Amino acid sequence: MKFKTSINCSSCVAKVKPVLDGLVEKWDVDTENPDKILTVEGGDEESIVRALKKIGYQAQKIESKS
């Protein structure tokens, strides 16, 4: 799954790391992308969005174009 997020920098990544590590198998944030794309493997959309919101970040799922 891919999400457009408000995770802007390495400090933000450090803050979300323990939360995402507990929710998903693998994840990565492209902070160079203007949309700050979070890519995750495993977990479910609702839990990820809710957990990030709880610590002050927004995440919106990007629908795949297939």
UniProtKB/TrEMBL annotation:
<dbReference type="InterPro" id="IPR006121">
    <property type="entry name" value="HMA_dom"/>
</dbReference>
<protein>
    <submittedName>
        <fullName>Heavy metal-associated protein</fullName>
    </submittedName>
</protein>
<dbReference type="InterPro" id="IPR036163">
    <property type="entry name" value="HMA_dom_sf"/>
</dbReference>
<dbReference type="GO" id="GO:0046872">
    <property type="term" value="F:metal ion binding"/>
</dbReference>
